[in-house]
Structure formats: C-alpha cells, structure tokens
C-alpha cells in the first residue's frame, strides 16, 4: 500500500505530459539536499525502475553520498528500493573505503618537512595525526554502511558480496587500527553466518569459500600476529560454506593444511585462539558426521560406520582440553569422588587423543628452546624475534631462565636491560590471558631482591615494579593461587629493602586486604577437592596435590602477610602509626548502636589492629598509650560480637603491659554502680582485670582492689555480669594461692562465695564458649594464638586463614637466603607453638547422670531465656529472614512502651518492627526497656501518614492487616475461630486514644484479649506480647 505522500506525488506527476516526465523527475532530483528530502528521493527511485535516466540517477546518487555520512541507515533503506542504486552506492562506498585503507597503510613513519625546521616538523606530525583520525572515522562509517546494505538480517540487507568488496573486508581485517578491525570483523562474520542459508547461487558460494580459505591459509602463516585470533573466528563462521558442498568439504578435510593449522594453534596459540580452535573442531566433526563425509589421513579419520565413535571421542578431547589446559572448572552437582575418578579417566583419554590430533600420530616436533646465559642475550632474542620467542611454551622457558639468572651470585645486566625484558614478559602475560604456570612464578622475578635493589637507582624500573604490584594484586580476586607468591615475594622485598614499602604501596595493600580478605571462589574449592581426591587414587597420581597445580597454599600467603605486619614497627615506625590510625578510624566512626551483622567488619581487620598496636605500644609514650586505651575501651563498650570483643580485651591488656598505671582505667570501670547501662562492657572489663592480675604483671595490691569489686559484681542483678564475676573467681583464687597473697586467700567473703561457686554445674563443666575464650596473658600472647587460636570458634563463625605449619613452610622458603629478619620481641609478637584447639562439646552432650542433680530437694536455680544458645548468629538471622510476622507501632509515641514493644517483638521472632521514627532508638527510656533487642532485628521508619500506603503495598504481597483493638467486631483471642494468618502485620494503637477510624477501616482482622478484671485495658507492650504469643502458638 502506498503512503499518502507517494499518492499525492503520483497524482501531481499524472498531470505532467508523458514526454516531459523524465525532465520533470530530473529537475526534482536536482533539488534533493537534506534529510527532509528522503521521502522525495524514495519516490524518485521508485519511478526510475524500468525507465532509468542517467542524469537523474547521478543526482540521486550524489544526494545519497552526501547523506550516508550522517545517516547510513536511511541511505541503506533507500538502496533497498533499487538494485541498481544499491550497487552504485556499494561501488562508491567501496572506493572510499579502499582509499582510506591505502592512506592509513601509507601513514607509518613521522612525516618530515622539506625545510627541516623543527617547529614545522611538529606541526606536520600534528596534521598527520589529524588526518589519520579522520581516515579512521571515515573508514568506520564506510563499514557501518556496508553492514546495513550487506547484512541479510537487516531490513535493507541484500545477498550479494562481490569479490572486490570481500577483498576490501579482508584488507580491513589486516589493518593495524583496532576500530577498523573490530567493525570489519563484526560485518563479515554476521554476513558469513547467514549467507549460507540465503544465497542460492552455487557459484557465489564457491567463490566465497575459495577466497575465504585462501585468506585464512595465507594469514595463518603469520603466527603470533595481532590478527591471529581473527583468522580462527572467520574460520569458524566459514565452515558452513565449505560444508554446503559435501564433496568440496571432504576434499578440504583431507588436506594436511586444514589440520596442521589447527595443531599449531592448539600448541602455540593463546587462550582465545585455543578456544576458537576447539569450536572449529567441534563444528567440523559435527558437520562431517552429519554429511557422511569420508576422510582418512594422518590427522583425521571418519566414515559413516564410525562417525558416532569419532564424534564422541573428539567431544571428550575438547572437554578435557578445556578442563585441564584452559583451566575450565568442573561443573557442580557431582560428588568429590566422582569428580576425581572422572579426572583420572579424562587424563588418560587426553594422553591418547593428544597423540592423534596434536601430533598426527608422530612425536610433536617443536623448535628447540633457546639457551640464554645472560639477560642481554634474552633481550636481543626478544628484539630480533619481535617477542615470538616468548610465545606459547617460550614464556615459561623465559621465566624459568630469568629466575635462574637472577639467582646467580653476580647479575650481569643493567637496569635498562632488565626493564626491557620484564616489560616484554608482562606484555606476553597479558596477550596470552595470564597463563597459570608463568603467572605463579612472576612475583619471585619482578620482586627478586636484585630487581628491587636495581630499582632504587633507576626510576623507570622502580615504576615498572610498582605497576607490576598494582596489576598483579587485581588478579588475586579471580585467581586465589596468585595471593601466596605475591605476599611471599613482597614480604622478602620489603624486609630486605624497607623503602620498597612505599614503591609497592604497602599501606593500600594492607587496608584492602583486611577490609576484603581474598578468598577462593566456590569452583576453585571444588577443583581443589578434585585434586586431593586424585592424589589419593594411586602412587602414580600421588604427586598431583594442590602444590603441584598451584604452588604453596593460601595459608602461606597469609603467614607472609601477617609476619610482614608484625615486622613493620622495626622497618618503618611511621608507616606502623599511619596504618594503625587508618584502620582504627572506621571503627571509631561506626554508626551507634552497631548492628549485629556488619559486612564491613572482618576478623583479619581486628587481628591487624592488634599486631600494629602491639608494635606501637612499645614505642608510644604514656599519654599516647592512654589515648589508645580509651579508644579501645570505647570500641569494646559498643561491640556486640564475642570474637571482636575478645581481641579488644587483648589489646587493652597489651597496652597495660607497657604502661601498668593504665590499670586504673579498668578499676574505675569495675567500680561502676550502673549495672544496667552496658552489662556486656562491664563483664568484658572483668575479664581484662582478671587477665592482668593473673599474669606476671599482677600484684597483691591490684588483686585486692579487683577482689573487692568482684565480690560485689558476683551478686549483680544483671545475669551477664553476675556470671562473669562468678566465673572469674576460681581462676583468680588459684593464682592468689600460687602467689601466696594472704589478703586474698584469707578473705572470708571470698571463701564463702567460692564454696557456693564450686557447687554449680556450670563451674564443674564449662561451656564451649567459656573454654574458647580462655586467655593466659603470659603464654597465649603469640601470633599462633592470634591467627589460629580457639577464640576463632566464637561468634561470628569462621575458620582461621592459616595454620602454624603454614608459617613454618614460609620459613623454609628462606633456607639458604641471606635475608636478615630480626624481630624485637618487645615490639613484635612471637609466633609461639601450636595454640589450644577450640572446644565444641555443649552441655546437651553431657551424660544424663551429670545433668540431673543428686539431691531431688534442691531449690530450682533461676535461669533466663536460652534461645540465643540454640544456634549461631547466622542461624538466628536465617530464621528471622524467613519470618512473615511484622509489627507496626507507629501510633505508639511513648519511648518506654516502644522499648518494651521492641523487646517482645524480637523475642517472639518478628521480622521487623515499624515505628514513626527510628530516632527513638537512642532515647534512654527506650534503651532501658529494649536492652539490646533492637540490635538483633530490623527496626524501620514508618510515619503515621504513610501507614495506609504501606498496608496497601503489603496486602498485594499477601499480608493480612491485624489490629489489636476492643471493638464490636473484634474476635476473641484464644477461641477456635480466631485464626491469625501466617503473613500477618500486627498493628498497635496509641496509648490513650487507641486506633483511629482510618486505620481501623484498613484492618482485615481485629482481635482483643479476653479480660476477667475490671481495668479498662492493658499496657500496649503487654497486649502485643499476648497476641504475639498466640501467633507463635498457632504457627509453631
């Protein structure tokens, strides 16, 4: 159907006499000027079909050529209206593209001026760059237009690609400008992938096939060029052309060239090339099987009788090659044992298939690797071969040779020669997609002590080493096996040359590591499990351990990291101070009160703080140490998690170790009569005081002061303080007896209290948490306790990053080394011996006879809720996440009542509590009733004005709005027909006014609590607890 514009123009043309119409069209065509004339041009083209006029066509073509620079899509659409116009445009654009490519090819060396003046030369070079940029832009536009006009998938696309245009595309693929290569690759691969199914002329197909294969055959000889990967990409898309004629396809597969190209690429190509080759092999074998091709040569054998077997064999080979050579991880969902057995089978299959495909049944012939005895020889070889000697296996050979040359007593190479070799190796590392074997060995080369020593006098080499550390660090996130070689080499370099810490930016490395500790990805853990299983199968596979594949494990890297931190105070005291301040700042500025789960907090962060503080405390004056003590005591007062609290307690102890009068700060807190404000903090200070008194630092005078306060704390109304003081007394008493402190051992009040304590079950059988938090300041103050001690079993749950054996393996790497590493035991923590193992037994595992009291007439002991002992914080968080109970207290405005509402909502498992403003969380009345309940679940803002919108949104998610109010329609709680929905939003009214009519109207269900007394109503938090209990009863 014609549009209205075409119809109108046709009617106007109908009034023109027949003999004048050609002239009229010519005159109209001469006026075509801008994009607004596109519709008119389209109409003119439609009138030229069957009655072409050369002059009119020239006007139209001139218009299209002006237009295609700005709007190639519109021009390609117009070309679809006429084959003749399309071919003319194609010819014109091809001429432009060829001119651009020739001009770019000619621009290789800087242009010199005829008069030789320096300024003119600079201007000419600037003009040259401008011309080059213009040529690239124009060539890209030409290619964009060709995509539109030649792509059969586009609306304007056609199905012809003459020989000249195809040769131009090949020429563009060979260009050194990545913008042009990328567009040419995109265009020709899209066209090739669809032409096989659209082109009907067999001669066209044969022509395309022959030209494509000729180009591939020619270019594959220039191995290791930047265009090498494109060859195989084009090859992959060209297979369909060749398979379209089974006879020709069979002839192609029978040639040696087809298979030797693939063999060379698999052996010497980089990862991208190898992946493309595997795709080609899969597609070739599949199409050969599908077309019943018969081939029998030294590289490939297939026939209809054996095609299923051959296809399966090559599929296995490709999968094995991906898994082992390319490092593709094994899919999940397979048991560890199955994965190990499968790997053994794959290894055997790979050995067999490799001989057939890669070597053609003959031993693989490779060039002999050059023998470099000097770095200068390696540099000259790299220059003469344009880095070809570093391709494929040559990279590993070069790294190994360079390592050996650096290890020699005397290094015969200048810093400049060393820099050139290191740059060439890193370039190949990037080109070859970071091959594992070479990558693992790089830190020991770049950070070799001789490289670091030479860099101190050569700024360019120093910048290269800094660049290496920065770039190599980025690889750790995805390749965990790079962590250990980097840290081991970095530690040695900085201990030997402390100034190198600034070059390597050690401050950033420490901060990034403790904030986001490197960890293996799940697929890597799975691969490690496979390696361990594989090593256990037989003596032949016993060497295929983690170290065989990846070198020393991550624990050795962590040992190097923490040992370096432990040495910083001797290497650079100023860096120690800066790091300590930087790492402390986020903790000091954290939001108060902190939430239970903080993603930014890590155990490694606090461990690093302790190591740095140990070093700093040894050189810090009294006032500075007091400031640090006050900071750590503040962090201890706000920290909710036991593991971090343990480390903060340790920090306070080591500061007191250096300045004993700081113990007065601890005694001052113990003297507090406010047991309700922060009972966790007070219980932690009890542990600090007892730890100091029961160490070599303890004195009888200090013990007497602590004993006076412990006696009172043992009777505290807060159970956490009472229990902590009672737990501390037996240890405190034993130490006093050993030291013969008469003021303690003859105290009758303490004697009576101890007799009572010894009768309690929890004193006889300590809990696992109590055992894991034990700390002897005289013997446990070691790196092994800090990094792999039993306290790591405390919340939050986690595993240590290393074992003591990892430090011992680190020390083995220094055997025979001249590296001097003297640590000041006063400023640095000793590594120590194996720490105490964590305790896991819980009270429920005790024999029944120990659980039951011997005397049935014993009075029941007071206990508190123990739901917090039923699982880890992660368990409690998971249960809370699955809860579908929400509580809305936005109408309640009394902070005291809101605190009680928070407490009962958290106890009965609500997912969240909504209040009018979360500012109430810091009100003293709220905190006095809520205790720490608001830290264990979400308390969110919900202003009264937003309540109705909130109810509407949540109702769409399946929630029911349940109000607690006495009305004539309320259901009585506890009766059989009063059923609270699983997804409930419980709404509380205001203290005096109750629930307003607008909110009552929104409720899907109203409930009230049955009363027997005469008081009008319950307190809001009491009413909420009744309904919450009944909800839990119904949905247990």
UniProtKB/TrEMBL annotation:
- Per the record, where are the segments of Basic and acidic residues compositional bias? 814-825, 842-852
Domain tRNA/rRNA methyltransferase SpoU type span(s) in chain numbering: 886-1029
Return one Gene Ontology term, BP aspect: tRNA methylation
Asked whether the UniProt record includes Cell cycle among its keywords, one would answer no
Q: Give yes or no: UniProt keyword Methyltransferase.
A: yes
Q: Which InterPro entries match?
A: Alpha/beta_knot_MTases (IPR029028), ARM-type_fold (IPR016024), SpoU_MeTrfase (IPR001537), TRM3/TARBP1 (IPR045330), Trm3/TARBP1_C (IPR044748), tRNA_m1G_MTases_N (IPR029026)
GO function terms (MF aspect): RNA binding; tRNA (guanine) methyltransferase activity
What are the boundaries of the region Disordered? 814-852
Q: Which UniProt keywords apply?
A: Methyltransferase, Transferase
Q: What is this protein called?
A: tRNA/rRNA methyltransferase SpoU type domain-containing protein
Which Pfam families would you find in this protein's record?
SpoU_methylase (PF00588)
């Amino acid at each position: 159907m014609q549009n209205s514009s075409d119809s109108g123009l046709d009617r106007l043309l109908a009034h023109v006499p027949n003999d004048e119409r050609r002239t009229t069209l010519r005159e109209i065509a001469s006026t075509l000027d801008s994009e607004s004339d596109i519709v008119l041009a389209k109409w003119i083209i439609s009138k030229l079909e069957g009655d072409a006029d050369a002059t009119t066509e020239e006007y139209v073509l001139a218009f299209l050529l002006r237009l295609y620079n700005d709007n190639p899509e519109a021009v390609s659409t117009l070309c679809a209206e006429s084959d003749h116009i399309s071919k003319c445009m194609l010819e014109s654009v091809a001429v432009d593209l060829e001119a651009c490519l020739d001009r770019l090819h000619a621009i290789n060396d800087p242009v010199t001026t005829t008069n030789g003046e320096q300024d003119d030369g600079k201007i000419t070079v600037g003009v040259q760059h401008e011309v080059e940029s213009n040529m690239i832009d124009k060539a890209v536009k030409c290619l964009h237009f060709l995509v539109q006009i030649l792509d059969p998938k586009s609306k304007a696309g056609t199905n012809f690609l003459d020989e000249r245009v195809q040769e131009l595309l090949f020429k563009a693929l060979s260009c050194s400008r990545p913008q042009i290569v990328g567009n040419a690759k995109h265009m020709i691969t899209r066209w090739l992938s669809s032409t096989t199914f659209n082109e009907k002329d067999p001669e066209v197909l044969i022509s395309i096939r022959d030209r494509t294969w000729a180009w591939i055959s020619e270019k594959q000889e220039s191995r290791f060029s930047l265009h090498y990967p494109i060859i195989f990409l084009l090859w992959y898309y060209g297979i369909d052309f060749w398979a379209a004629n089974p006879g020709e396809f069979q002839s192609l597969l029978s040639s040696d060239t087809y298979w030797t190209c693939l063999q060379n690429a698999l052996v010497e190509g980089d990862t991208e090339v190898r992946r493309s080759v595997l795709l080609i092999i899969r597609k070739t074998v599949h199409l050969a099987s599908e077309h019943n091709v018969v081939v029998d040569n030294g590289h490939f054998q297939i026939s209809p009788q054996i095609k299923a077997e051959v296809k399966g064999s090559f599929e296995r080979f490709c999968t094995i090659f991906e898994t082992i050579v390319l490092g593709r991880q094994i899919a999940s969902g397979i048991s560890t044992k199955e994965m190990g057995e499968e790997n053994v089978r794959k290894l055997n299959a790979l050995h067999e298939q490799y001989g057939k495909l890669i070597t053609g049944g003959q031993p693989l012939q490779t060039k002999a690797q050059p023998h470099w005895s000097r770095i200068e020889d390696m540099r000259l070889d790299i220059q003469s071969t344009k880095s070809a000697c570093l391709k494929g296996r040559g990279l590993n050979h070069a790294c190994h040779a360079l390592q050996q040359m650096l290890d020699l007593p005397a290094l015969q190479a200048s810093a400049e020669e060393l820099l050139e070799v290191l740059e060439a190796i890193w370039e190949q590392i990037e080109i070859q997609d970071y091959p594992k074997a070479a990558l693992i060995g790089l830190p020991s080369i770049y950070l070799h002590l001789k490289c670091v020593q030479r860099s101190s006098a050569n700024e360019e080499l120093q910048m290269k080493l800094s660049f290496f550390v920065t770039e190599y660090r980025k690889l750790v996130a995805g390749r965990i096996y790079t962590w250990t070689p980097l840290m081991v080499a970095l530690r040695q370099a900085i201990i030997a040359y402390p100034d190198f810490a600034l070059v390597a930016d050690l401050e950033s490395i420490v901060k990034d590591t403790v904030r986001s500790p490197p960890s293996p990805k799940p697929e890597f853990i799975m691969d490690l499990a496979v390696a361990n299983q594989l090593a256990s199968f037989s003596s032949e596979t016993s060497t295929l351990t983690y170290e065989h594949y990846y070198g020393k494990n991550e624990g050795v890297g962590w040992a190097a990291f923490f040992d370096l931190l432990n040495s910083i105070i001797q290497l650079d005291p100023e860096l120690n101070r800066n790091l300590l301040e930087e790492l402390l700042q986020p903790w000091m500025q954290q939001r108060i009160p902190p939430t239970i789960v903080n993603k930014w907090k890590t155990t490694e962060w606090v461990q690093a703080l302790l190591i740095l503080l140990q070093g700093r405390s040894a050189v810090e004056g009294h006032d500075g140490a007091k400031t640090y003590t006050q900071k750590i005591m503040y962090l201890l007062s706000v920290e909710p998690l036991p593991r971090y609290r343990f480390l903060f307690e340790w920090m306070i102890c080591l500061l007191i170790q250096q300045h004993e009068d700081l113990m007065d700060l601890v005694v001052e807190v113990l003297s507090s009569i406010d047991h309700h404000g922060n009972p966790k903090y007070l219980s932690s200070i009890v542990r600090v005081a007892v730890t100091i008194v029961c160490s070599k630092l303890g004195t009888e005078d200090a013990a007497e002061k602590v004993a006076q306060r412990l006696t009172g704390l043992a009777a505290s109304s807060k159970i956490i303080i009472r229990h902590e003081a009672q737990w501390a007394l037996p240890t405190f008493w034993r130490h006093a007896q050993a030291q013969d402190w008469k003021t303690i051992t003859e105290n009758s009040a303490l004697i009576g209290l101890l007799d009572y304590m010894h009768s309690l079950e929890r004193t006889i059988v300590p809990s696992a948490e109590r055992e894991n938090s034990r700390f002897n300041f005289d013997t446990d103050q070691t790196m092994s306790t800090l990094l792999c001690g039993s306290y790591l079993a405390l919340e939050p749950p986690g595993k240590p990053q290393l074992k003591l054996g990892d430090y011992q393996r680190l020390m083995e790497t220094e055997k025979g080394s001249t590296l001097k590493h003297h640590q000041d035991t006063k400023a640095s923590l000793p590594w120590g011996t194996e720490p105490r193992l964590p305790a896991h037994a819980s009270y429920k595992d005790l024999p029944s006879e120990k659980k039951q009291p011997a005397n049935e007439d014993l009075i029941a002991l007071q206990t508190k809720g123990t739901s917090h002992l039923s699982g880890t914080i992660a368990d409690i968080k998971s249960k809370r996440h699955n809860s579908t109970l929400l509580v809305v207290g936005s109408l309640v405005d009394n902070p005291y009542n809101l605190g009680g509402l928070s407490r009962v909502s958290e106890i009965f498992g609500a997912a969240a509590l909504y209040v009018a403003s979360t500012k109430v969380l810091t009100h003293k009345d709220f905190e006095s009733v809520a205790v720490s309940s608001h830290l264990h679940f979400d308390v969110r803002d919900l202003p009264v004005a937003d309540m109705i919108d909130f109810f509407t949104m949540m109702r769409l998610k399946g929630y029911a709005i349940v109000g607690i109010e006495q009305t004539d329609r309320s259901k009585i709680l506890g009766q059989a027909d009063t059923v609270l929905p699983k997804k409930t939003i419980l709404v509380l009214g205001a203290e005096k006014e109750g629930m307003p009519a607008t909110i009552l109207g929104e409720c899907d269900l109203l409930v009230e609590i049955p009363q027997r007394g005469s008081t009008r109503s319950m307190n809001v938090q009491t009413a909420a607890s009744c309904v919450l209990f009944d909800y839990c009863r119904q949905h247990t």
